[in-house]
C-alpha cells in the first residue's frame, strides 16, 4: 500500500476544502483499515467546514466526512468480525478529532462498521449510516415503534425523514409525514399519508387523521417551531415525541399537560465518547437486512461527484439543491487532481 493518500482537507473555517497528499493511517488494536469507495456529505460536514458546529468537536485543519462505504484492507489486533476484502459501511469519523471519510483510506473502530448491504452499490451504502442510525435511535430505541401505532414524521422527504418513514412502515406502523407541496408524491411513494404543512395546520391534520386524539409517535426532523407543533400533535398519556434537532428553547407545557413524553436523539455520542459504539454496528446490520429484504431504499442524488469536486458537492448540500443524499466517490487511482 502507498504510504501517502489523497484527502480533502478543511484547512480553516469558511475556506474551500483542499486536496492534499497526507500519510496513510495504519489500523491500531480494534480497528480496521478501509479503502474508501464513497463518502456521504451531510449538512453537519458543511457546518464543520464553516466553523459552525462546536458540538462536533472537530478542530481544523481536518479531513471531514462521517459516512463511508469501502473495502477492508487490513485488520488490527483483536478484530475478529472483518477480514480483508469485506465490503463495509458505517458512520465512522470526521468528528471528535478523528479523521473523516473523504480520503482514500481510513482506520476505523471495527465496532462502528457492518457488512454493506448485498443489494446496494457503494454510493447507496455510503448514503445510509447517519440517516438510518438517527431514525433507528429515535423510533426504535427511544419510542419503541410497533405495529398498530400512528406515527407522524415531520420532514418526511428529508434525509432522516424518508428513512424514518420506511423504518416505521417496516415495524408495522401506520405512517403519516409532513412536507412541502413538491415533496408529497415522494412521501406517498414511501407508503405514508402525505400532509402539506403549508396548507394544513396541526389542528387540521390532527383532527383529520386521528379524530383529534393525536399521534402515538411524532418524530421531528426539522426543529424550531416544528418541535412545538410536535408537542401539540402527540397523543395524551401514551404519546411520545422524538427530535433529532431539539436544540432550541421550547415550552414543555403543551407536552406536560398531556402527560406525554419526549426524547432527544444525539447520534454523534458514541463517536465523541467511545461509549455505545457496538450498538451503532448492530443498527447498521439491521439496516443492511432491511435493504436486502427490499424494505428500505435510500434516496441518493444522481450527480456522481468525484473527490476533486468536493467543494461543488459541499455547495450543493449547503444550498439544499440535492435530490437525495449527496455522495462523493473516491478516485480509483492517483490520476485525480484538483480542478
UniProtKB/TrEMBL annotation:
PANTHER family: ALCOHOL DEHYDROGENASE RELATED, RETICULON-4-INTERACTING PROTEIN 1, MITOCHONDRIAL. SMART domains: PKS_ER. Coiled coil: none annotated. SUPFAM superfamilies: GroES-like (SSF50129), NAD(P)-binding Rossmann-fold domains (SSF51735). PROSITE patterns: QOR_ZETA_CRYSTAL. This is Zinc-dependent alcohol dehydrogenase family protein. Residues 14-328 form the Enoyl reductase (ER) domain. InterPro entries: ADH-like_N, ER, GroES-like_sf, NAD(P)-bd_dom_sf, Quin_OxRdtase/zeta-crystal_CS, YIM1/Zinc_Alcohol_DH_Fams. It comes from the Bacteria. Keywords: Oxidoreductase. The keyword Cytoplasm does not apply.
Amino acid at each position: 500500500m502507498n504510504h501517502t493518500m489523497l484527502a480533502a482537507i478543511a484547512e480553516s473555517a469558511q475556506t474551500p476544502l483542499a486536496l492534499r497528499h497526507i500519510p496513510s493511517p495504519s489500523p491500531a488494536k480494534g480497528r480496521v483499515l478501509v479503502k474508501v469507495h464513497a463518502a456521504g456529505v451531510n449538512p453537519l460536514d458543511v457546518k464543520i467546514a464553516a466553523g459552525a458546529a462546536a458540538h462536533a468537536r472537530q478542530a481544523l485543519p481536518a479531513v471531514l466526512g462521517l459516512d463511508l462505504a469501502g473495502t477492508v484492507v487490513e485488520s488490527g489486533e483483536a478484530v475478529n468480525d472483518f477480514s480483508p476484502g469485506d465490503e463495509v459501511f458505517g458512520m465512522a469519523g470526521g468528528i471528535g478529532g478523528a479523521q473523516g471519510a473523504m480520503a482514500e483510506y481510513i482506520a476505523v473502530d471495527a465496532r462502528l462498521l457492518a457488512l454493506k448491504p448485498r443489494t446496494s452499490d457503494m454510493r447507496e451504502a455510503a448514503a445510509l449510516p447517519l440517516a438510518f442510525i438517527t431514525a433507528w435511535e429515535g423510533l426504535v430505541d427511544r419510542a419503541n415503534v410497533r405495529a398498530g401505532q400512528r406515527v407522524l414524521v415531520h420532514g418526511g422527504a428529508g434525509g432522516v425523514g424518508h428513512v424514518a418513514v420506511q423504518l416505521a412502515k417496516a415495524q408495522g406502523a401506520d405512517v403519516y409525514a409532513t412536507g412541502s407541496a413538491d415533496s408529497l408524491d415522494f412521501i406517498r411513494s414511501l407508503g405514508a399519508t402525505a400532509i402539506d404543512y403549508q396548507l394544513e395546520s396541526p389542528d387540521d391534520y390532527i383532527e383529520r387523521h386521528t379524530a383529534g386524539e393525536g399521534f402515538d409517535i411524532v418524530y421531528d426532523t426539522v426543529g424550531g417551531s416544528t418541535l412545538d407543533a410536535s408537542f401539540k400533535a402527540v397523543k395524551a398519556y401514551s404519546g411520545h415525541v422524538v427530535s433529532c434537532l431539539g436544540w432550541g428553547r421550547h415550552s414543555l407545557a403543551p407536552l406536560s399537560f398531556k402527560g406525554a413524553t419526549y426524547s432527544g436523539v444525539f447520534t454523534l455520542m458514541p463517536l465523541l465518547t467511545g461509549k455505545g459504539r457496538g450498538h451503532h454496528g448492530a443498527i447498521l446490520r439491521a439496516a443492511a437486512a432491511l435493504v436486502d429484504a427490499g424494505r428500505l431504499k435510500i434516496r441518493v442524488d444522481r450527480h456522481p461527484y468525484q473527490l476533486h469536486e468536493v467543494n461543488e458537492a459541499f455547495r450543493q448540500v449547503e444550498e439544499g439543491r440535492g435530490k437525495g443524499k449527496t455522495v462523493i466517490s473516491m478516485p480509483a487511482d492517483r490520476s485525480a487532481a484538483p480542478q
